């Protein structure tokens, strides 16, 4: 079953005395692009978590947010570095003397200076943290995959409808083609008769004119290729692995064949069906952008 590129999942877990949650969201993207938001000392886990995510998802712009709810036991200790504070005060006094000023460095300003206050966090076994976090992330990703599969099923049904509509339009073009070709044949005979009245006409030139006019109305190759493309689209929609790129490529190939038919058979009825196919193809192409 194909999967879409959009989904959301959330899971919660514990490590020691603290709780944490992980949210995973995914939207459309040509490739797999992962963006992590990890707190403090846990940010070093990002490379390993990214490797694990790549084994689960093939495409999409994926955002992973981890939030820690440490509770009273897990909160970091806030420390004040008195040596750093004293250095700031000494430097400020020198500046006051230099400027002959009466201003003094306030407590509020000093407390916001870099390095005066800092958080001291208890060292943790990062391998154990990684195991806990990765397990919870896997739960969230499983939810994302479930949503993607549900949306993918809906997309597949819609795309099958588009293929069915294009197949009907192609069948109508096949039905009209003999009549259109008969009209071309009539014009061809008129052209040959006109050329035959030209005393300067050579056999070679006559053969070239006939070949060009005949080739212009022959769309059999395009029809055969389109049927094959439609069959391939339907086949890909039944696969379980990522097929978004393949479907995009097939949409381009279908567009090429439809354009060729439209240029070869310049008939009002055929043009109507060609436009119908182009409309359905555009809808199919838009849906293919949403598939992993």
Key features of this structure:
Ribosomal Protein S5, domain 2; 6 strands; alpha+beta; four-stranded mixed β-sheet; 62% helix; two-stranded antiparallel sheet
Model description:
It contains 9 helices and 6 strands, in the order βββαβαβααβααααα. It folds into 3 domains: 7-74 and 128-148, 2-Layer Sandwich (Ribosomal Protein S5, domain 2); 77-120, no CATH class; 150-288, no CATH class. It is 62% helix and 15% strand. By secondary structure, it is of the alpha+beta class. It is elongated, with a radius of gyration of 35 Å. The mean pLDDT is 87. The longest helix has 71 residues, at 126-196. A 4-stranded mixed beta sheet has the order 1-2-4-3. Strands 5-6 form a two-stranded antiparallel sheet.
Please write out the topology.
Elements: E1 7-15, E2 18-27, E3 32-37, H1 46-54, E4 60-69, H2 71-74, E5 77-80, H3 82-99, H4 107-111, E6 117-120, H5 126-196, H6 203-216, H7 220-237, H8 244-264, H9 268-288
Parallel strand pairs: 3-4
Antiparallel strand pairs: 1-2, 2-4, 5-6
């Amino acid at each position: 079953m194909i999967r879409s590129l959009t989904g959301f999942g959330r899971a919660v877990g514990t490590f020691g005395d603290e709780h944490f949650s992980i949210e995973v969201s995914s939207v459309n993207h040509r490739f797999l692009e992962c963006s992590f938001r990890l707190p403090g000392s846990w940010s070093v886990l990002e490379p390993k978590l990214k490797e694990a995510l790549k084994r689960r998802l093939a495409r999409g712009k994926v955002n992973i947010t981890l939030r820690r709810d440490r509770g009273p036991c897990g909160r970091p200790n806030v420390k004040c570095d008195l040596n750093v504070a004293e250095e700031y005060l000494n430097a400020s006094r020198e500046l006051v003397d230099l400027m002959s000023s009466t201003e003094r460095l306030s407590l509020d300003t000093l407390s916001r200076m870099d390095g005066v206050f800092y958080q001291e966090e208890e060292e943790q076994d990062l391998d154990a943290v990684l195991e806990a976090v990765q397990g919870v992330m896997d739960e969230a990703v499983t939810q994302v995959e479930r949503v993607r599969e549900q949306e993918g099923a809906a997309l597949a049904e819609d795309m099958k409808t588009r293929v069915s509509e294009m197949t009907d339009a192609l069948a109508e073009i096949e039905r009209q083609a003999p009549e259109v070709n008969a009209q071309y044949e009539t014009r061809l005979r008129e052209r040959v008769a006109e050329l035959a009245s030209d005393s300067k006409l050579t056999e070679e030139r006559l053969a070239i004119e006939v070949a060009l006019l005949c080739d212009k109305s022959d769309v059999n190759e395009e029809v055969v290729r389109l049927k094959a493309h439609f069959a391939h689209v339907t086949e890909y929609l039944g696969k379980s692995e990522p097929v978004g790129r393949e479907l995009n490529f097939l949409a381009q190939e279908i567009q090429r064949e439809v354009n060729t038919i439209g240029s070869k058979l310049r008939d009002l009825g055929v043009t109507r069906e060609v436009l119908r196919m182009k409309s359905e193809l555009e809808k199919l192409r838009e849906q293919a952008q949403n598939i992993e």
